[in-house]
Amino acid sequence: MSGVDVLPLAAACLWLIAANLAAMLPARGRCSLRCVALMFTGVPLLGWATFSLGPVAGVLLLAAGATLLREQLVRAAQPFDDRSPE
């Protein structure tokens, strides 16, 4: 693995650490600003890592990100009628 290939992996690890730290903080409402910021930074990062490291690494990083943002993914999959306001 060359030095260029380490950059997306290191950035993805930093994103995962930031997502874990953000998950530990209390959130107000359904999807806080932290959640939105993590999604908007995670998607381009995932594309960069997939392009540099290959599709297997991309799928693994996607799974890691989905486990951190699973509550928002579950709420997005629910019909609007079943959602309870917080």
From TrEMBL:
<keyword id="KW-0472">Membrane</keyword>
<protein>
    <recommendedName>
        <fullName>DUF2484 family protein</fullName>
    </recommendedName>
</protein>
<keyword id="KW-1133">Transmembrane helix</keyword>
<keyword id="KW-0812">Transmembrane</keyword>
<dbReference type="InterPro" id="IPR018919">
    <property type="entry name" value="DUF2484"/>
</dbReference>
<dbReference type="Pfam" id="PF10658">
    <property type="entry name" value="DUF2484"/>
</dbReference>
<feature type="transmembrane region" description="Helical">
    <location>
        <begin position="45"/>
        <end position="69"/>
    </location>
</feature>
